[in-house]
Prior knowledge:
This protein is of the alpha+beta class.
Amino acid sequence: MPDIKRFVPTLPGYAVSSGADTPVTPMDHKLSRKASIGYNPIEFKGKLSQRDLVIGALKKQDWIPKDKVKDEVTWFYTKLGIDDLYFSEESVDTIAAHILAIYGAKCNSAAEGGEALQVRLVQESPDHAVYIDTSYPGITDTEGPKYEARLEDTYLNQRKDNKVFRLETFRSKMAGVGLDGQELRSYFVNQCNFVKEDPSPEEYEDLDVVSDKTFLEKATANTRQIYQKMIKDALSRTGPVVDLYEVEGTQERRMVIGLRRGSGEYFFSTMSDLYHYHGLTSTRKFVEQFSNGLSVTSIYLQPAPGNENMDVDVAMDSMRRETSLLFCIPNNLYHDHFISQKLSLQESTYAHCVSIFTMHFLNRLGSEYTTLRQQLDPNNSIHQQLLAKLKRRLRGETYTSNDIQRVIHRFPALVRILYRSFFEVHRIKPRSASASNSTSRCATPQGPKLTSPSTVALNKMPSMSYDQLDEYVRGAVSNEHEQLIMSAFVVFNQHCLKTNYFQPTKSALSFRFSPAFLPEEEYPQPLYGMFLVVGAEFRGFHLRFRDVARGGIRIVKSRSPEQFVINSRSLFDENYALASTQQRKNKDIPEGGAKGVILLDADAQDKGEVAFHKYIDSLIDLLIEGTSPNIKEKLVDLHGKPEILFCGPDENTAGLVDWACLHAKSRGAPWWKSFFTGKSKRLGGIPHDAYGMTSLSVREYVKGTYAKLGLTDQSQITKIQTGGPDGDLGSNEILLSGEKYIAIIDGSGVLCDPQGLQRSELLRLAKERKMISDFDTSLLSAEGYRVLVDENSKTLPSGEVVTNGTTFRNTAHLRNFGCGKDGKSADAFVPCGGRPEAINISNVNALIDEQGNARLPIIIEGANLFVTQDARLALEKAGAIVFKDASTNKGGVTSSSLEVLAALSFSDEEFKEHMCVHDGQEPAFYQQYVASVQQIICNNASMEFEAMWRENKLTGTPMSVLSDTLSKAIVTLQEELSNSSLWDKVELRNRILREAFPKLLVDKLSLETLLQRVPDAYIRAIFGSYLASRFVYRFGIAPSQFKMYEFISEWEQIEY
């Protein structure tokens, strides 16, 4: 057998503890030798008769000499330590086949001169499996069969058929065969048979209800007690819960880990690498499943051969802390360096995170891009769009993820030096024994000390400043390419303001960065805050442009591995662009723009909910102060001031926001009520679709345009709409409007009637939220038709043949329906759904006739990004009136902002009384507040519409440009006013705030109460946004310098 002691000096910083720093095990985590057994052994009463049948079967086969068959079978049954569970479940033929395979392996070993015996037996069935192989305790065999990963992938990981399996595994001596020290490892997998498959939430903690029946039969009273405690703890957490137990009088320790099933794939198999790194080996392992969704793993550990003098408790304490790190990233990009012990788990996981960071921020565009950018007109939307496309292409063609990984793989020693810098700054200083609770396993009379192998190694390395690190990197690498990649570690370290990396428990890794390293030429609008979150199934960002900012969280999925590569390259840039768009849209509310994006890994496309939970939990780690020793400690915070994020639903997250708020509440976050908008009404949410919040602002632009053009009879205005009656915008636009619909295009197809679609039928569909596929076609005129996406070769009333329904649907918005005045397609077009960039510079000419006139004279863009900026400008040049999405559909963000304000204003009890809907009964205040929100939306939209119409007539500037210019003017002025001396004029400030707060809130709580409860930064934002928007809407984008004086003077004269 290989001598383990030979490997000890190569363990990074391996040291044998003197015992002075040994963590203390509390009495309730000490087990007697008898209690440590854990499970009652199963005795297979038919074992002897089965053995005789196996002997008979092997003699018939005649592969083993008949005089040796009995000895081989007896040795297999009695000397290998195989659990009776195996014999009770396997057939005679299967056991005979396994014995024959081992005999063959023994013959092969003898023929090769007594080399190591290799036993590799596999029996996989739909409801159970057996794996047996030979190995050396304490060593990861990278060339072996990897049975643990195989059984985890096949049985333990979340399965599409929802079957659940438990696992028992044992290590036993191999009497008389193989090399000295070789042992047999057996794995037994069985499908669970729960006492109750679908327990109620009230039964989740009842072990007798949620357990597998075999577990209940075999578990000792002590094990049941341990599992009962674990289940209770794990149900309240997102990440893993770890408990350690000491077997008195021995070096054996029992590690019990509880987590939510499906949240830690490949965690079980990589745990072996972790305890091998720390010089330990396992004798038994159990994975128990419970019908409440939990999975609990028990590992029985002891020093590996050659490590008998090690301090087991120091190793176990390090493992306890590193278990959550392994859970966060079970197979990091540099796991091979961890297995070979070139890097510790902390170091290899750190390198993994920096690799992701480097991929997003290393792809610099070069001086040529900067020169070109300086030559182009920043106010020319077409120039800026072309520049954005060039930027995406250049960034995709520079450093790839594989390039970065190859370079980092070459420099493990340099990674360790760079990690030391990160470790020194952000390592959580453990609390003293007096500050810890009585069950802390790392407290000593002198206070805890981290003496794990990796920590000891770090303590031997020299400390360096960031400049010294840069110089060290230059000296360690061989070319500029390598220097650029490895220097990104220094950038990562230098700009990381706080992280949960060293938090004892966590579900994913989160980092809060200063965005100061972002180049201005690539990101001209500076970010305020930047979070990176890395998990086992995803990576994601959260970006915001102001301290007080709000935006949705979306989950991005990839249809293929190639699409994932494309999505990962553009992840940060798209997140930045979305937050920037939100910043412009949030022009007249307190919050600036923000956005969160979660990109699912290529092999985790079904893990959206798990990824969202981990993303949110890890962000909360950085937003609230940890107060639980060994669970959530106080982090090192270089940002130095409290932060609150205001989030909302977006793509693929609409059904998850209630969980996010309640989870924040369970974590003790005082701002849990305002954490997310889009909550259900039972949590005080104001659903946009139910009250038509987004549609109300769109309708203000529609009605305002009609009024300016003198179109007083809506029933005579022909209209086209994308986005059908099944959607939020589409349904509410139908319910709120009175125009003559001649075409609706939605996901199911195209519905058209030049004589007008029957309104009563459209109202029915809108109220029932059904697609046009449910429209009663008997109500169409002779000229009307419906083409569904799955219909082909369909003839229209005009005689035109539609060859493909899907293609027809995708291009129908470009058709000339010929139903508008003067031969136009229609009088108005209101996109309420559809694909982004459905109208772009490549196809916009289909909407412009031969004389250069727009076929759609009015376009009110309700759907986000339906028309590209260059296409908008082309349509406006052709005479169309075009209002873009950032102006028209801001009703939703206004509603969300006022939802946040109510949550910040009320205490928990008041919020429950006045804002939460119980049993379908809306509180009176809730009804009044919703009506107030609707009125504010209409007022804000009307003010912006009037300002844009005025500016357009005065200057001739296109509406599509004015929308952005107006937003920029308001946002810039808001920042100036929030931090101006006006804030210090208390009487003036209160006058303005009394108007800025909704009157209902002021009447219910008083201005003084609101000023006490709402965070100061948020109040400043209300003050600045209200003044700035009212000033710009009234006086325009470039007023004279005396207008502000006039504006403020009017406020000073207001009396209450």
